[in-house]
Amino acid sequence: MQIRAYAYLMLTTLLWGGNAVAGKLAVGHISPMVLNAGRWTLAFCLLLSISIDQIKSDWPVIRRNIPLLLAFGAIGYTGFNGFLYSALKYTSAVNGAIEQGAIPVLIFVLNFLLFRIPASKVQVLGFIISFVGVALTAGHGDLTALLSLRLNFGDGLMMLAVLCYSLFTIALRWKPELHWKSLMASLSFGAVLATIPLVIWEDANGSMILPDTTGLLLILFCGLLPSLVSQTLYIKGVSIIGANRAGLFINLVPIFGTVLSVIVVGEHLEGFHVMALALVLGGIALAEWGKPKTTAA
């Protein structure tokens, strides 16, 4: 079962890395909030088309948990992406990459404070090594360059994005027992509802860009893979190995995003990219080896 969870989470973060590349390709073709709304609307419609009978069967459970399910979708899906897209208008991609590395740490801290779920010393060392890999990627191989970074309003928004996804991850312990189709349809519907005010806000400030052909293709990609497939696999991974351990895999996102940028966008692969990937994977492996033996982490 654990090997399956690792496979789920590796594929999840690979596709999320692809989402970062899609964000680069979207500039000038579709605005962030329209892309966010389009991807979740597509995901919801697809799920609805294949899940009607399952949703009918699960409706008593869904009805009892509607506020929770809508909150999951609004906070974990739309909230995270909304703050992320907004943050990158004010802060650098380097800052954004590093600050996303705070998600696994915050998951651990919140799990310990709220539920007294421990992490071993070896796990903490794994967290640190993995984060160094993220920082190495963000600093383009020069960790000293990170000392010159300055924090601004965008970094505050980025930390709200980090908080959203951390809360979503640890709150999955309360998800109702539902078939994955019903669960994802409910969460996607919550995400769609939450995108409506964000699209209205984007239109009001004059920054809305309706999709051209490239924008529509990006909606198709993001709706099918980073939204539908990845989020389903992430929830499955968390349910198998726990939030602390699953959250650490998020540090692979900037690494995979960089590698995919080399392949898709034509950026250059540097030696530090390989070193960073080794550090992140090594940190994850070390944390897994040193996980507490008596408590699901």
Structure report:
It is a single chain. The chain is mainly alpha-helical and 297 residues long. It has one domain. It is built from twelve helices and no strands. It has helices spanning 2-26, 32-64, 66-87, 93-100, 102-115, 121-138, 153-171, 180-204, 213-241, 243-248, 252-265, 271-289. Helix 2 packs across helix 8 (180-204) and helix 6 runs parallel beside helix 11. The longest helix has 33 residues, at 32-64. The mean pLDDT is 86. This is EamA domain-containing protein. The chain crosses the membrane at residues 67-85, 97-115, 122-141, 153-171, 183-201, 213-234, 246-266, 272-290. It is found in: Cell membrane.
Observed structural traits:
12 helices, transmembrane, 297 residues, transmembrane helix, EamA domain-containing protein, AA-Vitamin_Transporters, membrane, mainly alpha
Question: Beta fraction of the residues?
Answer: under 5%
Unreliable stretches (pLDDT < 50, length at least 5) are none
Number of strands: 0
> Biggest β-sheet: count, sense, barrel?
none
Shape: globular
Percent of residues in helices: over 70%
- From the N-terminal CA to the C-terminal CA, the straight-line distance is 15 Å
Question: Which class do the helix and strand fractions yield?
Answer: mainly alpha
The total count of helices amounts to: 12
User: What is the ordering of alpha helices and beta strands?
Assistant: HHHHHHHHHHHH
Total domain units: 1
Average pLDDT taken over every residue: 86
Radius of gyration in whole Å, from Cα?
A: 19 Å
InterPro entries: AA-Vitamin_Transporters, EamA_dom, EmrE-like
Protein name: EamA domain-containing protein
Subcellular location: Cell membrane
Domain EamA: 5-137, 153-286
